[in-house]
Write a structure and sequence with these properties.
Keywords: Hydrolase
Number of helices: 10
Strand content: 5-15%
Structural class: alpha/beta
Number of strands: 6
CATH topology: Arginase, Chain A
Protein name: Histone deacetylase
Distance between the termini: 27 Å
CATH architecture: 3-Layer(aba) Sandwich
Pfam families: Hist_deacetyl (PF00850)
Number of domains: 1
Largest sheet: 6 strands, parallel
Family: Belongs to the histone deacetylase family.
Shape: globular
Helix content: 40-55%
Mean pLDDT: 96
CATH class: Alpha Beta
Strand order of the largest sheet: 1-6-5-2-3-4
Order of helices and strands: HHHHHEHEHEEHEHEH
């Protein structure tokens, strides 16, 4: 949990992001949460009425602070979506909780912030067609499940094939990579997938889940990207969509580097890249 406040401090102290560019969200309304989640689950997280099995599946011990943080993170992604539509690029210094299903959380994910943000922005008529580019090392099963039959949302996941989740509902495009995949092969597969998507789907908004767990040093990743290779991955994605003038939202998603400092530095790279590109 310390990576979130640590990343904020790192970005502002180093001048990558200025304090006046950071907007603190309020807690998301339940009326918005239930666009992607069942009312029972959305409220049970808030009241603490989850069963022991549900808490165990979520992977995090319940607390009121967890419930508050989860609602803040979802609103942060909604806000980032609106800001990206106006400014071209925005980010949430959290988010990307892509394992959460409509009626339960799993894999350290409480609410599915991307799914809620997409549903809210669609209902508000801000967007129609949305692309999710999920580069977390774990397949985005919750997002894939929620939008399985929605032709206006294209879900793309590039991940470790043999990694969690072991039951993977199909995304619109899944690229499963073998263990120990290195920088060059990863980048090649990513660019090929983005080109294939661009040939058939023109989004109003793109959500980028830039998980840092493809790193070779990650505790659970099983892939073998270097820190420089991860930075190039971020550059590929950010340049690809900003050059086409598609509004882009940056989200953290997962990451379990050997220590807190390395985790923060790896997450910060996408914002460093965005600033280098001109945002």
């Amino acid at each position: 949990m310390k990576k979130f406040s640590g990343l904020h401090s790192y970005l502002t102290d180093s001048g990558i992001v200025s304090e006046n560019e950071v907007i603190e969200p309020s807690m998301v309304d339940f009326s918005n949460l239930i666009t992607a989640h069942t009312e029972h689950y959305a409220k049970a997280v808030w009241t603490g009425d989850l069963t022991k099995k549900e808490v165990r599946r979520m992977g995090l011990p319940w607390s009121k602070s967890l419930a508050i943080r989860s609602r803040l993170a979802v609103q942060g992604t909604i806000n980032a979506g609106l800001m990206a539509l106006q400014d071209g690029l925005a980010g949430n210094l959290a988010g990307g909780t892509h394992h959460s299903m409509p009626d339960h959380g799993e894999g350290f994910c409480v609410y599915n912030d991307v799914a809620v943000a997409i549903k809210v922005l669609q209902q508000s008529m801000w967007v129609n067609r949305v692309l999710v580019v999920d580069c977390d090392v774990h397949q985005g099963n919750g997002t894939a499940h929620i939008f399985l039959n929605d032709p206006n949302v294209f879900t793309f996941s590039i991940h470790g094939e043999r990694n969690y989740p072991f039951k993977k509902p199909p995304s619109d495009l899944d690229v499963g990579l073998p263990d120990k995949t290195k920088d060059k092969d990863y980048h090649k597969a990513l660019i090929s997938a983005l080109d294939n998507i661009n040939a058939e789907f023109k989004p109003d908004l793109v959500f980028y889940l830039g998980g840092i767990d493809p790193l070779e040093t990650d505790h659970f990743g099983r892939l073998s990207l270097t820190l420089e290779g991860l930075r190039e991955r971020d550059r590929i994605v950010i340049e690809y969509f900003t050059q086409k003038e598609y509004p882009l939202v940056l989200l953290l998603s997962g990451g379990y580097a050997p220590n807190l400092k390395e985790t923060i530095i790896a997450h910060a790279q996408m914002y460093e890249v965005a600033k280098e590109i001109g945002f």
